[in-house]
Each structure stands twice: as C-alpha cells, then as structure tokens.
Amino acid sequence: MKTNIKQELAKQWFKNLQEIICKNIEEIENNKVLFKSKKWLRNSNKDEGGGESKLLENGQVFDKVGVNFSEVYGKFPNKMKGKIPGTKKNTKFWATGISIVMHMKNPHVPAMHFNTRYISTSHGWFGGGMDVTPCFKDDKLKKWLHKSLQTMCNRHNKKYYKIYSNWCDEYFYLPHRKETRGIGGIFFDYKKNNWEKDFYFVKDVGLEFIKVFNEIISKKNKIKWSKKDKEIQYIKRGRYIEFNLLYDRGTKFGLQTGGNIDAILMSLPPIAKWK
Asked: Which residue in 67, 186, 202, 232 has a CA-CA distance of 20 to 30 Å to 99?
C-alpha cells in the first residue's frame, strides 16, 4: 500500500524504536538471552500489511518481554463503522505502532507497559502511553516516575501531564476489582492538533520509556526476593491478565481488525495465579 509522508515517518520511527529497545534489553541480559523474531501478515491472501513480533523469555532479568511492531491496513468490519473516528462514510484505515510489555524475574521490579501508535482513517491521530505496575507498595518509585513524566510532558505543554496522568488512572482501572492496575503513568489518544508537534511528543514518550525502564531495573533488580514475593507477583499478574482481556483497547482493536493473535496476546505473563 502506498503511504503518505506522515505515515512513512511514523512507521519508520516505530520500527527504529523497536530495534533500539530490543538491543538495549539484550544488553541488560548481557547478550546471553536474545529475542526471537517472528514476522506475520494480517491477511495471507491479499496485501493488508503485517508486523514483526519480538519475544525474549527466561532471562536473568526478564521473565518475558515482548516488543511488537505493526503496519496494517484495509477496512474495518461494518460493525465498527462510525465507532472509530473518521469511519462514518468510509471504513478504510491504516495503522502503525509499537507495543511493549515487560514481565520481570525479580518481583521487586515492576511490570512495565508502553505503546505508541498512529492511526489514519479520513483523518489521522496519535495515541499511546506508558504505565508501571509494582507488586508492592512503593511511594518513592511512584513519586520519581511521575516527576520524570511531568518533566518530559512539560517540554511540550505544561497542561499535558495532568491530563494524561489522570487519563491513565481512569483507563487502567479494574471496575470489578475497584482498583487501579498499578501506580499510573500517562495515557493519551486522538491526538491530532498539530502533526509535527504531536509526532515530536510521541517520539519523546518513546525515549522517556527507555530512560524509565533502565532506571527502574538498575535500582530494583538488586533487591533480594523470596518464594513468598514470587507468589505475590503471580497474583498481581492475574490482575494484569484480567485488565488486558476485559478492558484493554489495544487487545480489542487487534482482535476486531484481524491482527496476529500471538502478537496481541504477548502481553500475558508466562505464569499467573488467582486465589
């Protein structure tokens, strides 16, 4: 499919970011555990794009981390007509993005999630964000995270942090549990005011995530953990699964648009428990 310059720039950034982050993660693992890559097509019978899923498992630091890139296009199912912005008259779409979920070996290192995307229908917009889910209460980490995100947001617009932080808390909420998924972060969607400024912000969010996960791993992975700590982590992962399967927009979008099942469900941890 022929893409315009905005689509091409967004696609190339997300693809480059995937490579940068995967190399960074392999370096954290001292290159002893490497990513396995799997390319996929949205439709094997006609050109509707696809993507590349990269998965690293059973490391010394990471239990499981998936770093997915996609560029897909075609038509939304008729049942989605009008429900996605810009699809009232025409259900054609084009979308690209990167999605990352980290499940850690050490229960004292929180699970971390990041994604950014660009979707084009009759108009285009950016969305995405990042959030952190510790297994244990950690006010110091929460304060540091939000200060870092506020500093990053303020480089672009001093109104962003409060809006996107609140949006994150509202989004990553489990109504049936009456609890938030973690300690928050930022979340934004339908960002389409100024393409150049929005793209600059989206790139900065990606670079900030690299800083955040490196800093957290550096600080928290030194903490010794017990079998009891691991059991608490498994229960917390159960909550993670509940949110992703019941409420997550990315999961729903992927399933409704014929995305790759393995890539969509890579966010699920390798082991989880309920009680």
From this structure: 232
14 in helix, strand or coil? helix
Catalytic residue among 113, 123, 146, 176: 113
Residue the block writes with tokens 């973690």? 182
CATH number for 152: 3.40.1500.10
Task: Return the structure tokens found at 208.
Answer: 């900030």
List pLDDT tens digits, range 221-256: 999 999 999 999 999 999 999 999 999 988 887 777
pTM: 0.94
* Rounded Cα distance, 153 and 205, in Å: 8
Is 275 part of any domain?
A: no
Residue 272: inside a domain, yes or no? no
Per residue in 25-48, pLDDT (tens digit) is 999 999 999 999 999 998 888 999
Is 16 contained in some domain? yes
Contact 41, 53 (CB under 8 A): no
Q: Is 113 a catalytic residue?
A: yes
**Can you list the pairs that 155-160 forms with residues at least 24 positions away whose Cβ atoms lie under 8 Å?**
155/204, 156/197, 156/200, 156/201, 156/204, 160/186, 160/188, 160/201
What domain count does the chain have?
1
Tell me, yes or no, whether 273 lies in a domain.
no
